[in-house]
Amino acid sequence: LLSWSGQGQLVSRSSTSQVWRRRLQDMAVYVKHYEYTPPSWRYLGRPSRAPCEWRNYEILRNLGVPCPDSVCLGQKRSMGRLCWSILVTKEVPDSQDLGHLLRHDSLQRNRGLRHEILRSLGRILRTLHAQNFVCRDIKLRNVLCQMSGENRFTLYLIDCPRAGYRFFLKQRAALGDLATLRRHVLAVCGQHDWDILLDAYVEERRPH
């Protein structure tokens, strides 16, 4: 798996990770590769980011929230220290990250579709919080919007290694998600757009 990584189109890079897009037989996949030189004690006795993201995708699917299909997972440790870890996921076809899409002129002009997308995101976040699951790093670029026809779409959550269940201080954690998302929404939309999202989030928690 390590030799297979590092090939294809480099999508993003950080101090400890690289994301590559490449073909695997008849499908496109994304290879997220974390590298630690020298090997890191940070994850001694606990899962690293790639296994956490693999687990969180399984949780999202069980909660009915769309996310990429996981393909494979691998890692290497040396005396407990993490050397590298790799997560491979299928590409979500015909999708764009929501931060980019909301900046596009077509969506800026189509207020109805923009508001429906934001409502959908609010409902997704409420579904997660109702199950005590928090994202801890929810940004518009970590939400993919897949268009499947005129005014038809599906939202997918991606890049969620820090997410997880929270049973203590859960309201504070949920408010942290909302605060982070509000900051990113207001960077590309107006206050009214945020109010649309928040109304959908609140509506989901009202008893019927």
Q: What does this protein structure show overall?
A:
With 208 residues, this protein is an alpha+beta fold. Helix content is 38%, strand content 30%. The protein has six helices and ten strands, in the order βββαβββαααββββαα. A five-stranded antiparallel β-sheet has the order 1-2-3-5-4, with helices on one face. β8 (143-147) and β9 form a beta hairpin. α4 (111-130) crosses α6 (191-205). It is globular, with a radius of gyration of 18 Å. The mean pLDDT is 93.
Which terms summarize this structure?
alpha+beta, 30% strand, 208 residues, globular
Counting DSSP E segments of at least 2 residues, the number of strands comes to 10
Q: Report Rg.
A: 18 Å
What strand order characterises the main sheet? 1-2-3-5-4
How would you classify the helix and strand content by structural class? alpha+beta
Biggest β-sheet description? 5 strands, antiparallel
Strand content: 25-35%
Helix content: 25-40%
Unreliable stretches: none
Order of helices and strands: EEEHEEEHHHEEEEHH
Large-scale geometry:
globular
Short description:
Helices cover 38% and strands 30% of the residues. It is α+β, with helices and mostly antiparallel strands. The strands form three sheets. A five-stranded antiparallel β-sheet has the order 1-2-3-5-4, with helices on one face. Strands 6-8-9 form a three-stranded antiparallel β-sheet. Strands 7-10 form a two-stranded antiparallel ribbon.
Topology of helices and strands:
Elements: E1 9-13, E2 17-24, E3 27-40, H1 49-62, E4 70-78, E5 81-90, E6 95-97, H2 98-103, H3 105-109, H4 111-130, E7 133-134, E8 143-147, E9 153-157, E10 164-165, H5 170-188, H6 191-205
Antiparallel strand pairs: 1-2, 2-3, 3-5, 4-5, 6-8, 7-10, 8-9
Helix pairs in contact: 4-6
